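Lecture 7 notes: from sequence to structure.
We start with the chain below.
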Amino acid sequence: MRRHGPVEYEVFLIGVDQARCVGCAECVTICSTGVFEMQGGTAYPVRPESCLNCQGCTGICPTQAITITEI
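Predicted structure tokens for the same chain:
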């Protein structure tokens, strides 16, 4: 089925507070869409466009270093 008209997409800004990140990689493990990668011992959101806003990463982060904001 072909869809006509505009298609809406949700886009999220993913933030990782590098001062709070302890490098546990829990966010990398829990994210099913591969938003995060470890670089230099801390997590980086390398594919924020893949975020589904499931909040798994924010819930599992032991230092609450991750924020997700809809833009």
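Points to note: The chain has one domain: 12-70. The mean pLDDT is 93.
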